[in-house]
Amino acid sequence: MSVRHALLAFLSEGPKYGLQLRQEFEESTGEVWPLNVGQVYTTLQRLERDGLIESDDGEDETGPQKVFRITEPGRTELDQWLSTPPDMTQPPRDELVIKVLSALRVPGVSVHDIIQVHRRYLVELMQQWTRLKEDEADFDLTFALVGDAEVFRLDSVVRWLDAADSRLKRAALEAPSAKPAPLIRRRLVTRR
User: Fold this and answer.
1) In the predicted model, what is the mean pLDDT of residues 113-134?
2) Are residues 9 and 44 both part of a single domain?
3) Domain total in the chain
4) How far apart are alpha carbons 15 and 88 in whole angstroms?
5) Phi-psi bin for 58: left (phi > 0), alpha (psi -120 to 50), beta?
6) How far apart are CA 152 and CA 5, in angstroms?
7) In a shared domain, residues 100 and 167
8) 35: which of 6, 19, 116, 123 is 20 to 30 A away, CA to CA?
9) What are phi and psi of 140, to 5 degrees?
10) Domain membership of residue 135 as a residue range
11) Stretch among 57-66, 78-87, 130-139 having the lowest mean pLDDT
12) Which residue among 83, 103, 127 closes a domain?
């Protein structure tokens, strides 16, 4: 998640204070990802150092506060970030994938049992998110969108576990005493 770019997006609406940016970040993510106020100010300092935002000291009823605003280079970076797809050519280091691959190497461990334990847990999480989404979706669009993303993400992990379990069962039937073949490193080639 790019806090840096999220803050630029909020500043594109107009000048804001640091605490206001923190609150808007949390509201915009359905209050699912809390943001440490220290992280906000550290990020703002870096953005200002890089010339993407500027600040001045403002006065209000609570005393002096720094007001931040986006600069033209900041708007350019924000536009570029929004319109550039993330690099997804390499698979992330997913703990569950590593756990299943590691379980294949541990004597006496049933990888199928490991898969089922994790599958049940993920299905329960999907059900919890679905219930939360149903309760809040009418009131909070951002939470509904975050909930949708989480349900789809969990569903894709469950589908991967199902596919892995099927593949392992087929492999066991085809070569019951064979060890898993060594992994061959392949690089995905992308056209740019």
Assistant:
1) 92
2) yes
3) 2
4) 33
5) beta
6) 24
7) yes
8) 123
9) -140, 100
10) 95-174
11) 57-66
12) 83
